[in-house]
Amino acid sequence: MTRTAHAAIGGLAAAALAVSLAGCGSHPASSTAKSGSAGSGANTSSAAPTSAPGHGADYSGWLIKASDINAPEVFTAGPPISSPNGQPGVATTFSTQDGSHVIRDTIQVLADPTAAMNALNAAKGAQSSVLKNPISQPADIGTGGTTLLGDAPDGSKGISFLMFTEGKAFVTLEFDGPVDSLAPPDFVTDVGQRQDAAVKKGLGG
Description:
It is a single chain. By secondary structure, the chain is of the alpha+beta class. The protein has one domain (3-203): Protein Transport Mog1p, Chain A (3-Layer(aba) Sandwich), CATH 3.40.1000. The chain has three helices and eight strands; from the N terminus they run H-E-E-E-E-H-E-E-E-E-H. The protein has helices at 3-21, 113-125, 185-203; strands at 75-77, 81-82, 89-96, 102-109, 132-138, 143-151, 158-166, 169-177. Strands 1, 2, 3, 4, 5, 6, 7 and 8 form an eight-stranded antiparallel β-sheet that branches. The chain is globular, with a radius of gyration of 16 Å. The chain starts with a helix and ends with a helix. Mean pLDDT is 79; it is low at 1-52.
């Protein structure tokens, strides 16, 4: 993805969080959403924080591992980044050796499920700044699961977004590849389900 498109994505996430946090900061952290078991390769080493999300919390254990990505090409994980976009959570990037396929995985931890859903809705509303002629489709993952499909505005990449919430977590998975060659839906779903299971485990579900 180009720097312009990537910057737009960062702005989208920040705008989503600004909307979700307005008026929600006084809500107590909620209990977990419906329970579920993590995928066979999910990292389960992190315990769920017991208080409201904070910048000092370590959410790296909520991320899937590169070994959870079932694809013909091998993906390698970059180092986890704490507090993406200045908000509690974690992010990482998975990429193939030649860099032709990239998966950006971002988990933002908000005050409660309502704030997480507000962030998701704000992100969906800002899709036109990230994708050219985006196509929106529902996804049966987490709560409010949605895929957004299209090309980067400059036509350099094909992009598939999968966004969903799980409890107080808002998850964005971005799949970048060659233009007009979007990630297969089954592949997007499989990665999304594994990430959802890892978040549930992190939440204590």
